[in-house]
Each structure stands twice: as C-alpha cells, then as structure tokens.
Write a structure and sequence with these properties.
alpha/beta; 7 helices; globular; single chain; seven-stranded parallel beta sheet
C-alpha cells in the first residue's frame, strides 16, 4: 500500500477508463488514495486498475453508464455500504456531440450530452453529498471547457451543456460554503491529448498538445491545497 498525502482517503473519478480521468485516477492512487474508477467501459477500467495495482496503489472498479436511469443511485448505494465517507469527487466524464450550427443540432445527441454533462452531475451531487459531508475534508472538482463561459460557433450543444454544468457546481459551492467543510472547484483542462480533442480537431497534431498526465498532476496538486470553494482555473 502506498503511503502518501492522501493515504486513508477515498476518491471517486468518473470517466476513469481513459484520458484525463484515467491519468487522474492513477495520480491519486500514487498519492495514497483508494480510488473508485467509474466509466461505461469495463475493459478500460480494468486496465487502469491493473496499472494502479502494479504501481502499489489501491483501486476499485465500478462500471456504470451515467446516462442510465438510477445508475448513479445504485453506484452511491453500493459505495456507501462499503465506505462511510467520500473525500474527493472528480467529475470528469462528458459527452461531446457533433459540432454543428445551432439549427442543425441533433436532438438525440443534444439530449445525451445534457443527460451525461448536466443531469448526471446533479445526480452525482445529490447521491454523494451525504458521504462527502461525512468527510473531514471533502472536495469536488468538475472538469469543464472554455466554451461553457465563452460561446463559440458550432459548439452550441456542448457549450450549453458545460455552461449548465458550471452553474450547478457554482451554486453547489455557494450553498455549502458556509454550512460545511465542502469545497468545490471548476477546472478547464485546456487543449489536451485526448480522444475527445481528436474528434473535435481531427487535423491537429497530438504531439503539439500536453498529455493527460499534466492535467492530472495539477488536479492532484489542487486537491492537496486549501483552495477556496468556488475556485476556478485553467491548466495551461
């Protein structure tokens, strides 16, 4: 078992099967946390779990589709039956619908983005708030995008979902800051070498972008700092 600054702490990372989520989960485990890995893809989660175990860390996989009705509630029930408190929640999973003009947005794709990026966020907060409040130092980090606060042509569907995502987290921060120890931060990872980025910018050279590990290292550093609730930053 790794001894580190987060030893004895429990972290939950969504979208942990690849990219920034996987890198963050591995970085948290290296810092001593027991990490619950959740995503839709069991195989990807198992690969991340194996890497964590090989490095001497501790992790538990919990495959779940955030868009599935009651999926998050079942996840929270299962976790709360094993652990009393949740110290860190990293909301990373997101859906990028096709980039298109507002009038051409697919309703089905938009609904899926709103379900995963917005409704699932509220459900994660609602279902894990009791466990977070039982922690002596509860922290929540939401991974967002610049298009959530600075609209960009053809990014209407994704940008709208991220704008709503940020409002939920900002409101949660304001509602809890004076009545609990909970701290909430919103982080824009910026241009990063991920599968989502490749879909959005197919002609871009991946080698010109920072790796997910750079973002993960910053997230772990932030989680170890006494940041104020409502904190926002971008990883450059």
């Amino acid at each position: 078992m790794i001894e580190g600054p987060f030893s004895g702490q429990l972290a939950l990372v969504t979208g942990a099967s690849r990219g920034i989520g996987a890198a963050t989960a591995e970085a948290l485990a290296k810092a001593g946390a027991h990490v619950i890995l959740t995503a839709r893809t069991t195989k990807g989660l198992e690969e991340v779990e194996e890497r964590i175990f090989a490095a001497g860390g501790a992790a538990t996989i919990a495959p779940v589709d955030l868009a599935e009705p009651d999926g998050i509630a079942r996840l929270a029930t299962a976790i709360s039956q094993r652990w009393r408190a949740l110290d860190m929640l990293v909301i990373n999973a997101a859906v990028l619908p096709e980039l298109t003009s507002v009038q051409d947005i697919s309703q089905n794709a938009f609904n899926k983005a709103l379900t995963v990026n917005v409704l699932a966020t509220q459900s994660l907060i609602a279902n894990f708030d009791p466990m977070l409040r039982r922690s002596s130092d509860p922290r929540v980090i939401g991974l967002s995008s610049s298009v959530g606060s600075k609209p960009r042509a053809y990014w209407g569907a994704y940008g709208a979902s991220k704008a709503a995502f940020e409002v939920l987290l900002d409101c949660y921060a304001q509602e809890t800051m004076n009545v609990s120890k909970l701290r909430v931060a919103i982080v824009n990872p910026g241009a990063t070498r991920t599968a989502m980025r490749a879909r959005a910018y197919p002609g871009e050279d991946p080698a010109s972008l920072k790796t997910p590990e750079v973002v993960a290292d910053r997230l772990v550093s932030l989680l170890g700092q006494p940041f104020s609730s409502g904190h926002r930053e971008s990883v450059n």
